[in-house]
Amino acid sequence: MDALYLYCIRKKNIFLPFLAQGLEEKKEIFAIPYKKIEAVVSRISVEDFSSDEIKIKAQENLNWIKEKILIHEKVIEEAMKKDDITLSVIPMKFGTIFTEEKRLLETLDKHYLQFRTALDKLEGKEEWSVKIYLSDEKKFEEIIKTNCGTIKEYQNKIAGLPEGLAYFHELELKEVISNEIEQRLEDIKKEIFFEMKLDTEEAKECKLLEKEITGRVEPMILNSSFLISDKMVNQFIQKAERKNKELNIKGLVLEFSGPWPPYYFSEQYV
Amino acid sequence: MSTQKLTHATEATNLADILERVLDKGVVIAGDIQIRIADIELLTIKIRLLIASVDKAMEIGINWWQQDSFLSPNSINKNNRVTNLEPGQ
Q: Inter-chain contact A258–B44, Cβ cutoff 8 Å?
């Protein structure tokens, strides 16, 4: 059975054919208009996208899901691009499906005001991501050791002790160092988040992603999203680059990406 | 504006960023059908999508299966030995 897969909602636009293919091969992307908004959709077969089928695919053919997730993202990215400007869109969570156009139109009608308000509020704004990783743990630790008074005191004390006694103090020192590292990382995270937040419309601290998800050796220290007025984006990028240089000296790295569809900032309006 | 292109740090970060958003965020409205994947399965999918090989996992310091008695060859041997001894005791 044919159904409609909903990618995102945006204000009614002069519709240009999409370069991206739909979730199902050879099914093009099109828009279903309703009053002043439109839903960006493509046709899919219900059988291929039932929860059970997805679960089986998750076991057998993960690349299939990965491909679909990337298409979902690509279509929305294309929907928010018009020449040089970023259009406001409301991105849907993966897997929102309507069995017929009538049902989709009913939903657009039911949530019309919320969608309109959200699109108005998001207009002229972009979502950007900022992440910090601890890229050089040794370097970070060395800097802390040379700058922390308590640690220095401990080290001096240990130097004058007989071997047996020194051993226990060394264990204590190790704990002091590890606490200090944790505290400093927390401070840096707060400081950077605060500074990046200045001149943005909204800011969110997001869940830290595990190594299993990032596929990286370095632990993630900060994961954050910002909603920025498009006039302020250049300034934001420059600030991020500057902060990255400052952090590099301490053994940390700041990475930023965007503009993203406002996944983090449209939820609150709908 | 200086950039319209997504500025991606690395391939892996990019995929993680996309998974984080597309699977966990975005607006939920009641469609007729909503693909539902329980949270725990979602994490499994994310992990399995990113870690294609054991080598990659080891490289980033993930080796929990070595401590898992069902997955580690050493532990299995130990378990077998215990089982083999039991009839004689």
A: no
